Amino acid sequence: MIGSGDDIWNTADAFRFVYIVTNSTNFSITARVVSIQNVNPWSKAGVMIRQSLDPGAVNALVAVTPGNGVTFQYRSSPGGGCNFANVTGISAPYWVRLVRNGDTFTAYRSPNGISWSTLGSVVLTNISTAYVGLAVTAHNNSALCTAKFDNVSLPGWPPPLIQVTPIAVSSVQINLTWNTVPGAASYTIKRATNRAGPYVPLASGLTTTNWTDYVTSVTQGYYYVVSALVGGIETNSPEAAVQFPKLTGRIIGTPGSWNNSGNTIEKVFDNDLTTFFDAPDPGNGDWVGLDFGPGVSNVITKINYCPRAGFEARMVGGIFQGANRPDFSDAVTLGTVTMAPPAGTFTELIVTNSSAFRYVRYLAPDASWGNVAELEFYGYLSYSPPAPIVQIEVDKTNLIFSWPGVNVDFRLQYRTNLTQGQWEDVAGGELRLYRDKWQLTLPFTNYPSIFYRLAK
Q: Which parts of 119-264 fold into alpha helices (H)?
């Protein structure tokens, strides 16, 4: 914002004001003053609530100055003088906030948007309609003052948008990423097994924009919300369901093209719906697919397919298969094309088979020359984690047990004799996921000897 003006002071104000109008009597306005030009030590940039746009209107302001710290000032009667209280030794960037609670207006300041200190409060009456916004004055009517704000929050404004993306990278692991929210002190992750919750907090106080969750099975259905703490206010992201990534691999299938046209199997995975595979004569038994590689098996959850334009009917009767032998002698049908799909767009096939495959393909019907424009296979890596190894650390009077995060749904058990007696589940303690490990903290026991194990 750029503003001139003699000052916000005395009986009349001269300044630049960007505002909204509200009839609410309970709200707050928050902003961080990133910078303010030093036109005058009493140049001001901050947040304001006014009774009207008249120069002498009743108002409250909390602002950052170049040379006089942070100031809280107010005019309690129309056309009257102003009062103020300031804290020196403070400069931008700095956070300011005004809170209205009925007729009480309270000013706050903060170096980080987390820890807030009260500057003062005042009772201002007869403000039924409030003008709420950002104010800048140069304290010099012949000069311009530039101030920068961010993290602005006021009544009616949408909160910062958070977009979270949960990707299932294996049968037990979901990687979450989200965008950075300016001014966020920390993030909290919440999870539900049903749409719209209820949500259970998984981790809080995070300062990165990624996190790994370990679950029993990614196909169970998980829904996530990430909240950002900005200026002491927590804002939630929209709910995000687990997504399955588009799979990649080595392109395999019928070699060559019709009349050596160059329309080979590579065209099926070039992200272009206008190109297509056109197999050589005689056009029977042609296929195209992916090899995920040695030791890699994926569970397929969805297949997108698009036909060659003008030859849509050639896909009718085509079969999608998964296999673990390169010749597809153990092929399993994942789906069949039952009607001509539209050209120029993907048709979606949801796959319910939960088996894992190294190889996948589209097997075209005879006399169709394999005509398909594009294929996409979605799914997740089938993964069987190795048996967990328990680590034990001593922390004063506690034992901290930990094991890898991929080892989901294990219970800690104990017995007092290594070879005799029944194993019993440990009671007490809170199991939590800390970084990439499960952790359980228990107090020391009075047993002369005790043995622990993990069990499912």
A: none
Residue 354: per-residue pLDDT:
93
User: pTM score > 0.70 for this model?
Assistant: no
Pairing of strands 233-236, 16-22: unpaired
Looking at residue 382, its pLDDT comes to: 92
For residue 82, which of 114, 110, 42 has the smallest C-alpha distance? 42
Q: Is residue 158 part of a domain?
A: no
350 Cβ contact list (under 8 Å, min separation 6): 301, 302
Q: For the chain, give the number of residues.
A: 456
Do 73 and 204 lie in a common domain? no
Which is it for the CA torsion 15, 17, 21, 25, positive or negative?
A: negative
Tokens of 64: 């950052």
Which letter does DSSP use for residue 267 in this model? G
When divided into structural domains, the chain yields a total of: 4
- Distance, in Å, from the CA atom of 73 to the CA atom of 124, rounded to the nearest integer, reads 12
Distance CA 60, CA 105 (A): 7
CA–CA distance, 278 with 274 (Å, rounded to integer): 13
| Rounded distance between C-alpha atoms, residue 72 and residue 64, angstroms | 9
Closest listed residue to residue 7, CA positions, set 166, 186, 140: 140
Computed over every residue of the chain, the mean pLDDT equals 93
The pLDDT assigned to 158 comes to: 67
In a domain, 159, yes or no: no
**Which amino acid makes up residue 236?**
N
C-alpha–C-alpha distance, residues 15 and 132, integer Å = 14
Residue written as token pair 């009260």: 118
Two tokens, residue 51: 């009774």
Instruction: State the Cα–Cα distance between residues 45 and 63, nearest whole angstrom.
Output: 5
Q: How far apart are CA 133 and CA 74, in angstroms?
A: 15
Residue type, 61: L
Give dist(CA 399, CA 391) in Å, integer: 10
Contact 50, 131 (CB under 8 A): yes
Whether residues 259 and 369 share a domain: the answer is yes
Element (H, E) at 94: strand 94-101
Read off the pLDDT of residues 44-70 as tens digits, 9 standing for 90 and up. 999 999 999 999 999 999 999 999 999
Residues 183 and 141: their CA atoms lie apart, in Å, by 33
Q: Do 24 and 146 share a structural domain?
A: yes
The pLDDT score that the predictor gives to residue 317 is 98
pLDDT in tens, 391-446: 888 888 888 888 888 788 888 888 988 888 899 898 888 788 877 788 888 888 88
Residue 422: give the domain boundaries. Answer: 391-455
DSSP 370-397: T-BSEEEEEEEE---PPPP--EEEEETT
What is the DSSP track for 95-137?
A: EEEEEEETTEEEEEEESSSSS-EEEEEEE----SSEEEEEEEE
